[in-house]
């Protein structure tokens, strides 16, 4: 199955791109470690901030380095958290340091588990390491009477090896589908706007 890269915009558009070849990402001279990934990631983000780089262009570079991490650091694909019987989900934080504003974690969702409709208030990159999940994309369609009205735009099924990225105000919902749990690597930038859960019936928006 061909691996694919995706970009979801604030308007709910889901754009597809070819993934870099894995052999171009292999570290040939010395082992690639998590700390090298974090250094490269921080350099990309800082450079993007200094040059006012568009999120879409920033995310292209970040998707590449995330795929490089997965290709070279095997233990990342084995850091599978134990899902909660109550929620059907679990998170495992892979790196945490005061002053380092980026979040790197793995997540598991049992089949049939669904998230709320939400945004992240920051750019995000999610790499599918196992199973399938369906993303539904939404956009704001505000009116004077209903300022948080939403309109569903499209859906996309992500398979193992796919990487999807989101601009800061992209709105989506995730459902684990198929017969096996969905296992993902999630990377999020620093939250710069409010994070919300959205109710598609009442059109209420509640902060995380």
What do you see in this structure?
By secondary structure, the protein is α+β, with helices and mostly antiparallel strands. The protein has one domain: Jelly Rolls. Helices cover 17% and strands 36% of the residues. It has 2 helices and 13 strands. The protein has a 7-stranded mixed beta sheet with strand order 2-1-9-6-11-4-3, with helices on one face. A hairpin with a 6-residue loop joins strand 12 and strand 13. Helix 1 runs antiparallel to helix 2. The relative contact order is 0.22.
Write a concise synopsis of the structure shown.
With 208 residues, this protein is of the alpha+beta class. It contains two helices and 13 strands, in the order ββααβββββββββββ. The protein has a single domain (4-207), classed as Jelly Rolls (Sandwich).
Walk me through the topology.
Elements: E1 4-8, E2 14-18, H1 34-50, H2 55-72, E3 89-95, E4 103-109, E5 117-118, E6 124-130, E7 132-140, E8 150-158, E9 163-166, E10 171-177, E11 182-188, E12 196-198, E13 205-207
Parallel strand pairs: 1-9
Antiparallel strand pairs: 1-2, 3-4, 4-11, 5-12, 6-9, 6-11, 7-8, 7-10, 12-13
């Amino acid at each position: 199955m061909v691996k694919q890269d995706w970009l979801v915009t604030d308007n709910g558009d889901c754009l597809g791109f070819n993934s870099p070849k894995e052999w171009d990402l292999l570290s040939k001279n010395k082992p690639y470690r998590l700390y090298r990934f974090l250094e490269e990631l921080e350099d990309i983000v800082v450079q993007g901030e200094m040059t006012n780089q568009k999120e879409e262009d920033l995310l292209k570079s970040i998707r590449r380095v995330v795929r490089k991490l997965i290709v070279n650091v095997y233990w990342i694909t084995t850091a599978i958290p134990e899902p909660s019987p109550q929620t059907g989900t679990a998170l495992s934080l892979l790196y945490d340091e005061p002053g380092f504003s980026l979040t790197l974690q793995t997540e598991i969702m049992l089949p049939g588990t669904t998230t709320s409709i939400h945004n992240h208030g920051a750019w995000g990159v999610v790499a599918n390491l196992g199973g399938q999940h369906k993303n539904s994309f939404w956009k704001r369609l505000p009116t004077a009477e209903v300022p948080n009205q939403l309109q569903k735009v499209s859906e996309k099924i992500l398979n193992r090896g796919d990487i999807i990225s989101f601009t800061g105000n992209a709105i989506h919902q995730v459902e684990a589908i198929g017969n096996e749990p969905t296992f993902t690597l999630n990377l999020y930038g620093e939250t710069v706007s409010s994070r919300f859960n959205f109710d598609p019936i009442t059109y209420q928006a509640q902060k995380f």
